[in-house]
Design brief:
The protein is an alpha/beta fold. Helix content is about 30%, strand content about 20%. About 55% of the residues are buried.
């Protein structure tokens, strides 16, 4: 099989954000004639791209540009149904994603991690464990660092730890992880995928190019994920927080253990896990499973886990004011993620929810809200949907802004209770992304603390 090359080819990169810009730079470096197109009329980094020889087509996606290309590389935010992309496919032009492009030039092996919830936490922790074990393990993909920017540093001994979304997986072709991880699967992104089945099919592509020499790491607590992993050709390693497994990574007697025919090997005390919420323990188990496949010692796993306090915007402890705790889970952008976050807390919880709805059945949250005697403060486009879905299961309040929502939540919370940002929605109606939403939440909590201090309130911060 001949090596993949783009030298002298006309390549169109669609989308000028991080992954698109990284793809364009990589393609120029590999000798392609690159045009980057974006629907926005200008880009912050357009001058830097132009200086390295990238032609720019901004403000529209000209069909003739796409149909006249030798290759089209799409960013994750570009849907397959975009008319110019569809026209390119109809004209026989190959269309791939940035993850697929970069993977063709990596020299090291790939650990690819996907799932509806927990991808970023698992990816980050896996990278930390491998680094503690002395392994060159660049971390990237959907977590924020484009895989295309890692090609130059890739070495044969590298293990690239890559978070991959359904949007990225649906534009893969030869993408071949040595270890593929499926954390869980529940309804999500139904504003883009036509059905849950289409969403699941995109996720299943993580296993499609694996061979009998590869590994599939699957969640035995999630029967659908486990079945998808077993449907591939790779060897399957399980992890489980709840169900009994005879082999794999699980918890027993206060320890995370590697269970096998010869018994349990202790890896790390569960009391050393510093993440909020029992559901995040599953992410630690998955990371430990990958680490053991990569040869990491129990000591390296224990060291990395004990020092890992989680990611920003993922069950992130923010502050305690007047005995009320504030937790930022802005990454909870779907219904099941919000449910798991809600179920972490005791009765009296106040939840800020809303944004741009991605589909699914909001009524699935009713039992969790009711059992916690919750108050829901709704924001954004989805507020009317939530108010209808949660009627009778929770006290409902509405806020026009996130600032108002934080103040309303504080007023509704009794001392000893928690205020949780778990939107169950995308952020794009009010914010650029979930991170901007999370930062805004933290800023409003800080203002609340400052305001109480000015007024002589009893604000108290704990470690």
């Amino acid at each position: 099989m001949s090596a993949f090359t783009v030298r002298g080819q006309r390549v169109v990169v669609v989308g000028g954000a991080g992954s698109g810009a990284a793809a364009a730079r990589l393609l120029v470096d590999r000798g392609a004639l690159v045009t980057l197109t974006d629907l926005r009329p200008s880009l912050d980094h357009q001058d830097a791209l132009a200086q390295i020889g990238v032609a720019l087509s901004l403000g529209s996606h000209p069909v003739e540009l796409f149909t006249g290309a030798d290759l089209v590389v799409v960013s994750p935010g570009v849907a397959a149904t975009e008319p110019s992309v569809a026209a390119a496919r109809a004209a026989g032009v190959p269309v791939i994603g940035e993850i697929e492009l970069a993977s063709r030039w990596l020299r090291g092996r790939i650990v690819a991690i996907t799932g509806t919830k927990g991808k970023s936490t698992t990816t980050a922790l896996t990278g930390r464990i491998l680094a503690a074990a002395g392994i060159h393990a660049p971390v990237g993909g959907n977590i924020g660092t484009p895989l295309a920017s890692q090609v130059a540093e890739s070495r044969p001994e590298s293990i690239h730890v890559v978070e991959v979304s359904s949007f990225q997986l649906e534009t893969t072709d030869t993408f071949h992880p040595w270890v593929a991880v499926l954390l869980n699967l529940t309804a999500d992104h139904l504003d883009r995928h036509a059905s849950v089945e289409e969403y699941a099919a995109a996720k299943a592509r993580i296993f499609s190019r694996q061979t009998e020499e590869d590994w599939a790491v699957a969640n035995a607590d999630d029967s659908r994920s486990l079945a998808m992993a077993r449907g591939g050709r790779a060897r399957v390693v399980c992890f489980a927080r709840d169900v009994r497994i005879d082999e794999g990574i699980t918890q027993a007697d206060g320890w995370i253990v590697e269970r096998g025919a010869s018994g349990d090997t202790r890896l790390v005390r569960t009391s050393d896990v510093r993440l909020i919420g029992p559901h995040l323990l599953s992410d630690v188990l998955a990371a430990a499973a990958v680490a053991r496949l990569a040869g990491a010692s129990p000591a390296a796993i224990a060291e990395a886990v004990a020092s890992f306090t989680g990611l920003e915007h993922a069950m992130e402890w923010v502050d305690e004011i007047g005995g009320v705790r504030f937790v930022n889970d802005s990454k909870a952008t779907n219904i099941d993620a919000a449910r798991q976050a809600i179920e972490t807390f005791e009765p009296g919880l106040v939840v800020i929810m809303g944004g741009r709805f991605k589909g699914g059945d909001l009524r699935l949250l009713r039992p969790s809200l009711a059992s916690r005697r919750a108050t829901v403060v709704t924001i954004g486009e989805a507020a009317p949907l939530m108010e209808e879905a949660f009627a009778g299961a929770a006290v409902i309040a509405h806020a026009d802004t996130l600032a108002e929502a934080v103040r309303t939540a504080m007023a509704a919370a009794a001392p000893g209770a928690s205020v949780l940002l778990a939107p169950a929605c995308a952020s794009f109606d009010m914010f650029e992304n979930y991170a901007a939403r999370g930062r805004a939440f933290k800023a409003e909590v800080a203002r609340l603390r400052h305001g109480r201090a000015l007024s002589g309130g009893s604000a108290r911060k704990t470690a």
